[in-house]
Amino acid sequence: MLIGELSRRTGVSARSLRYYEAQGLMEARRGTNGYRAYDEDAVASVRKIRALLRAGLSTEVIRQVLPCARGEQAGFDWCAELRAILDGELADLDEQIEALRRSRGALVGLLAEE
Fold it and tell me: How far is CA 40 from CA 19, 53, 84, 110, in A?
């Protein structure tokens, strides 16, 4: 399928699809006319990429975990590598949340001194 059809079927802009390709998240064949052509499983791949982006993962991390997320299934193949990477990302998020809580507390303290 061409990039326009993939865009329509996934609700993702053609610009974003080209970005995903540039980041190594997906591949397209090139026809003799130079147009990108995607396999049918690209729809599922784009949906998984979007889900991982919504979860706050960077494209670098997504590139690492995407091999466990290939195929037509809506979910993920929970291989050990994927679980370990996502556990690490979750721990990082917990640390960031705690740092924000400390910053918020300090700011509340400053405002209370008025």
Answer: 19, 21, 29, 56
pLDDT in tens, 11-36: 999 999 999 999 999 999 998 998 99
Burial status of residue 97 (CB atoms within 10 A of its CB: 0-12, 13-18, 19 or more): exposed
**What tokens were used for 57?**
């993962």
Among residues 48, 54, 51, the alpha carbon closest in space to that of 67 is found at 48
> Tokens standing for 50?
């979007």
- The answer to whether 24 and 32 have CB atoms below 8 angstroms apart is no
CA–CA distance, 62 with 39 (Å, rounded to integer): 20
